[in-house]
Amino acid sequence: MDRTTPRNARRLLIGAIVVVLAAIAALLWPERPHAPEAAGAASFDAVPPNEPPPAAATPSDTPPAVGQSAQARMLALRRDAAAGIPAAMRDLADVMQRCGFGKLHGPLFEKHVDEMAAQMRPDQVHLLRAAAARRQALCETIPGTFDEQVQQQRQLLQDAAGKGDLLARLRQRTRAFTQQAKAGLPDDADALIDEALMSSDPRALFELASLHNTSPELLAKAGMRTTRSDGAALVLVACERGLDCSASSEFGDDLCIASAMCTEDLDTVVLNAAAAEGRTEEVQARMQWMRTMLDEVDRAR
Asked: CA-to-CA distance for 240 and 140, rounded, in angstroms?
């Protein structure tokens, strides 16, 4: 296992930090996922209205109140996704990815948490265990093997994008890690980026930050002058505009579970990484450029 300490984690490249979800998924994503044998790629287990939530795949130490809350959330999300509601389909796909397609729960995950806890300051261990409990409570409610969840996640995003959901369309691009996946996307990058900037949704700005790190040429083609600091600047502006970047957010749990950064907000982590690389002024300059651009968009909306 990679024994990354909190101090070393601070020196992660900005690109890896600001797209921590994409980085985790890229490590887990198989280049050629196999289609599930028992179900088509478009299928996932819908939950009938009166059926209880699925049982946990493996035992866990999740506190009962946390587990019950997560089960209720996931039951509602799966029902709405099964009903074809685009936002629910997109959000369920996001949970699957955050759960490593079935890998972020069970004994191996608990072992990972134990090993990280052994390297942390004692007064912060409870934060890691709380984040892990929240994540495990979500992840253990999702049925299916790794390959099945990969296929389901892609199909959910595709279906939500097909219904016009902006975040799903953006995530199709930011989660396309192979040339084969990128080749299957529609040729609408310019219009999509314009929609993201016009949407006033800070989550769309975060997805543009991910897009900057995976396909910066698309942003340049759409008329955004790009520098190596644009990804970090987009995340920071998204935080300013209402994205929940706190240590208690899902992004905070991502950072805590992946890198033992359990006390800092996402924007603080990004700024610290910029400072470690001597890029604070460049990032701040790009942030100001983006604020000006978005203010103009707001006035034109």
From this structure: 33
Is the pLDDT confidence value at 16 over 60? no
What is the C-alpha radius of gyration for the chain, rounded to an integer number of angstroms? 19
**Is the residue at 70 inside a domain?**
yes
How confident is the model over 265-297, as pLDDT tens digits?
Answer: 999 999 999 999 999 999 999 999 999 999 998
pTM of the predicted protein model:
0.75
**pLDDT surpassing 80 at residue 160:** yes
Same domain, 89 and 192: no
Task: State how far the Cα of 64 lies from the Cα of 43, in Å rounded to an integer.
Answer: 30
Same domain, 190 and 278: yes
Can you give the pLDDT at residue 121?
93
What is residue 247's predicted lDDT score, i.e. its pLDDT?
A: 92
Q: Please count the structural domains in the chain.
A: 2
Q: Give the chain's count of helices (H) and strands (E).
A: 17, 0
The boundaries of the domain holding residue 272 are 1-17+186-301
Q: What is the mean pLDDT of residues 181-202?
A: 87
Rounded to whole angstroms, how far apart are CA atoms 64 and 6? 30
Report residue 100 as tokens. 């490593």
Among 153, 176, 199, which residue terminates a domain? 176
Q: Kindly tell me the burial class for residue 39, based on how many C-beta atoms sit within 10 Å of its own C-beta (0-12, 13-18, 19 or more).
A: middle
Question: Are 38 and 169 members of one domain?
Answer: yes
Distant-in-sequence, close-in-space partners of 189: CB < 8 Å, separation ≥ 6:
173, 215, 218, 221, 222
